[in-house]
Every structure is written in C-alpha cells, then in structure tokens.
Amino acid sequence: MVMNMNNLRIFMKVAEKMNITEASKELFISQPAVSKAIKNLEKSLNIKLFIRDKQNGLILTEAGKEVLILARQMEVIENKIYQVADQENKLLRGKIKVGSFPAVSTIILPKTISLFRSKYPLINIELVEGTSNQIKEWVEDRTVDMGIVASPFEPYEFEILNTDYMVAIIPENHRLNQEKKIELEKYQNEIIFCKGGHEIAISKTFQKNNIELKENLTVQNAETLINMVKNNLGIGIISSFTLSSVTHNLIIKDINPRITRDIGIIAHSFDEVTPATKEFINILNQVHKSELFRP
Predict the structure, then answer these.
(1) Cα(144)–Cα(115) distance, integer angstroms
(2) Taking the alpha carbons of 222, 226, 232, 236 in that order, is the dihedral positive or negative?
(3) Are 129 and 138 in contact (CB under 8 A)?
(4) Is 269 helix (H, G, I), strand (E, B) or coil?
C-alpha cells in the first residue's frame, strides 16, 4: 500500500478544523475534493477516520486520533528530509511550528525571530499561543515542533531559558506601599493570584512553608489582574516575567515566601527535531541566556 501524502495533509487540516468547509477554504480546494480525499484515505486504510454526527459535526474516531498523531510525525519526517537535503546544499528552508505563551511571545521571541529570519529567510515560522499546559499537549501530539513553557518540564527534554518569580502589585495609595515585602500568610484574604502557569509552584511553596492556600480570587490574565488591583479589589500576585510584558503604573513589591519557576524550551528529543528547529533553538539560547531573570 502506497500512502498518499496529499490525502494525509488534507486529513490533518480537516482534523484541525473539524469542518470540511473551513478546511477547503484554507487549502484552496473545493469541498468535494476534500471529502473525496478523506474517503480515499479511509478506503485505503480500511478504517473510519471520522464519525459524521448531525448535531456535533465531525468527530475523530479512536483510530482517527492515532492516525492523526502518526500523520503529524510523517509530516515532520518529510520536512526534516527536505531540510537535511537543503542544508547539504547550503540552503535551509521549510517550516517551524513554535508553541509559546503570550509573555514569551512579547518578551523573548521578537529578537530571536528577527535574527533567525535574517539568517534563514526561506524558513516559515508559525507561532501558536496558549497556556503552558496546552503547549505541552501540542508538543506531545506533535502539533508543534517545540514549545516554550513554564516548569515543570517532565517528561520532555528541556533547556532552561529564564528563572522567573512572583511579585505583589498594589496601587500607589495602598496602605502597604511602605512595606518592603508582602507577607502572603498575613494578607491571605486580600490576595488575587494571577496563575498563568504558576499553579504547581504556588502549591509547592505554600506546602513547604505550612501555609494554607486560600484562593479567594484567581485570574489567568495580567491585564485582568492589573484592572482589579487598580480598582482596589486586593493585592495582586503575578509573575515578574509576565508583568514585564504589560504596561501599568502600580507599585511592585517582593513577597514572602518567594515563589519561583523556570521558563524553558521543550521537545520530545532535541536530537530528533528538524535542522531548522535545531537552529532556531540555538539562536534562542544565544540571544536570551545572557538575559536571565534573576530570582
């Protein structure tokens, strides 16, 4: 049986969109052509890849989910073959898919992408943003070639880029504006946590210091936290790294106990990534390892 890579690519796009109409628009081919490709692939494999449900639309079968992961692996291998050949000919082309959370996209990636593009103008970069947990899932199912996430990094291979820590933010007229540090245990009932990937670090730090974790109010977005603090709803606790990616006029205070985490690059295996992805990681490390956030 000869695998039709074009049909596999169409299948991956349909699985991404879970809609034949949207997939056909992105692929610039007709809906009947998309449907025919899926039917041909199902026929050649002798399995059903999708369940066509009247209420919920397309649903991947269990076999379809497994084929999707393998198809993405095949796409990575195909891309890697061409990149190896291009590299041998002193050219590097192809595509890199990078998973990143918003603060990283704002602070870390612009300089890296700029330098990378100046060296390798033929390589396309696709940036996919989400939470650290989402990015880990994308690395796991090979939706992205590499991810930049908050610790913990296991079970993936990883390289640490930055050390991050949480700080408190309060308005200028706050009664604690003269305090050197904000004691988390003392002001538990006033704290608003902006978690955004700090969940495990927060839990471990509170357990280590025998502090009961009271989650009176939590948010995931820096802008939301800043607006709440401005409106005197409480003391904001947020990542220093994330805070540096947004504009505000609030007072920043250290907290006790200190909550830290690492930000790093993850992949299934750095030895197995494409040449283009490997070079992107090299440039990312060169640009930013000298700019660590010191806890």
Answers:
(1) 21
(2) positive
(3) no
(4) coil
The whole-angstrom separation of Cα 190 and Cα 158 is: 36
pLDDT digits (tens, 9 = 90+) for 110-153: 999 999 998 888 889 999 998 888 999 999 988 899 999 988 89
Residue pair 261/197 in contact by the 8 Å Cβ criterion: yes
Burial class (CB in 10 A: 0-12, 13-18, 19+), 157: middle
Q: Which residue is associated with the tokens 């695998």?
A: 3
The one-letter amino acid code at 187 reads Y
- CA pair distance 176, 57, nearest whole angstrom: 55
* Its pTM surpasses 0.70: no
Residues 6+ apart with CB under 8 A from 181: 253, 254, 255, 256
Quote the CA–CA distance of 87 and 237 in Å, as a whole number. Answer: 47
Q: Strand, coil or helix: what is 294?
A: coil
d(CA 27, CA 66): 23
- CA–chain centroid gap for 78, Å, is 24
Q: How far is Cα 196 from Cα 199, in angstroms, rounded to an integer?
A: 7
Please tell me the total number of residues recorded for the chain in this structure. Answer: 295
Radius of gyration of the chain (CA): 23
Dihedral angle computed from the Cα positions of residues 267, 159, 97 and 128, in that order, rounded to the nearest 10 degrees: 110
